[in-house]
Amino acid sequence: MKNNVLKVLKKIKECRKLKGLSNENMAYELEISTSTYNKIERGEVSLTLERFYKISEILDVTVSELLELNFDNQFNQIIRDNSSGQLFKNQQIENYYQENKDVYEKLLKSKDEQIEFLKKIIEKNNFL
Fold this sequence. Notes:
- This protein has helices spanning about 1-20, 25-30, 35-40, 50-60, 65, 70-80, 85-125.
- Helix 2 crosses helix 3.
- The protein starts with a helix and ends with a helix.
- The protein contains 7 helices and no strands.
């Protein structure tokens, strides 16, 4: 885990240098002290998610780039493993189906609870 964090911090530093920005520039943009920014780059203090997103904006790179995620390679590997890519498509469809099914079931349960609640109110009013 720590190794992955250090990779991300190294990537941030590389991108910062490529943009020609100093630690002082970054600190100013992040509204923190230069000392704090230096500690972030060295991994001495935790980088908040909010600051991580702000750094990606300042450096004009995507979060995926900073995390060195390469979705194209992952998708291409799946296609190579299954030449038509059908396995990937079927999995996506199954995931969407399951997500929709879960939401639908929750909505039905909520509807049933509301009906029972309204029935109780009607019964109560009929007795008055």
